[in-house]
Design brief:
single chain, about 260 residues, alpha/beta, UDP N-Acetylglucosamine Acyltransferase, domain 1, 2 domains, five-stranded parallel beta sheet, 15 strands
Length: about 260
């Protein structure tokens, strides 16, 4: 038992750089408190002391703001960061090295008996406010974006965002350098956009940039071919882009997405 507690404490250090020492983690981390309460209440539940298990889980909810049904199965090195508002249903199953952030719900969509809640495989990360609803699996190593609502199975290693949740596909890395070159050319800034947590407007602009880059390459090839055919032909230089033309657009995007 003490070895498991030590492992749970170490998992906090591995995933929260704000953690400074074991005493601080033991006394100030409600996610760890809720997990320790659950370890005991789950043991009571499995030994048919169901009222006592439910009572202990209710005490845990009062103290931590985290509601975990004692029937839920939770693996090793589970970490709830911040934790307020997390709800984990009775038939939920959570693998090893799973991370949940505040406001996450692992809920059901049916009042029928039996399996009603999701199964999270090893290494899953669920962002703040996400809702995973139903008796399906979230594959190993998958990531669920903040505030996503997931009602269908998630393949291993996938990233899911949006309402309803949808799997997003990362753009091939070979295109990144070309896209960055075009962004620098016209002065576009994606405001810290990552492919795992995309902004739809910025991604649309990036698609346009990819197309512009392809058009530029083809025009350059055409000009070179014309020069080979006619030695007197000289391709005209393109007028330089005025970056001031894009400042208004960037300012508007900054106001639309102030947290970027």
């Amino acid at each position: 038992m003490f070895a498991r507690i030590k492992e749970d404490i170490q998992s906090v250090f591995h995933r929260d750089p704000a953690a400074r020492n074991a005493i601080e983690v033991l006394t100030c981390y409600p996610g760890l408190h809720a997990l320790l309460f659950h370890r005991i209440s789950h043991w009571l539940w499995m030994n048919n002391l169901k009222w006592l298990a439910r009572f202990l889980s209710s005490l845990s909810r009062w103290f931590t703001g985290i509601e975990i049904h004692p029937g839920a199965k939770i693996g090793r090195r589970f970490f709830i960061d911040h934790g307020m508002g997390v709800v984990i249903g009775e038939t939920a199953e959570i693998g090893d090295d799973v991370t949940l952030y505040q406001g996450v719900t692992l809920g059901g969509t049916s009042w029928n008996k039996g399996k009603r809640h999701p199964t999270l495989k090893d290494g899953v990360v669920v962002g703040a406010g996400a809702k995973i609803l139903g008796p399906f699996e979230v594959g190993e190593g998958a990531k669920i974006g903040s505030n996503a609502v997931v009602t269908k199975p998630v393949p291993p290693g996938a990233t899911v965002v949006g309402i309803p949740g949808r799997v997003i596909v990362k753009m091939p890395e070979k295109d990144d350098s070309k896209r960055r070159h075009m962004e620098e050319k016209i002065g576009f800034d994606a405001y810290g956009l990552s492919e795992e947590m995309p902004d739809p407007v910025a991604r649309s602009i990036r698609s346009i940039l990819d197309h512009m880059h392809t058009v530029d390459m083809r025009l350059e090839q055409i000009c070179k071919s014309l020069e080979r055919l006619d030695e007197n032909y000289r391709s005209p230089n393109l007028p330089p882009l005025n970056t001031e033309d894009f400042e208004g657009v960037q300012d508007e995007e900054s106001q639309s997405f102030p947290n970027k």
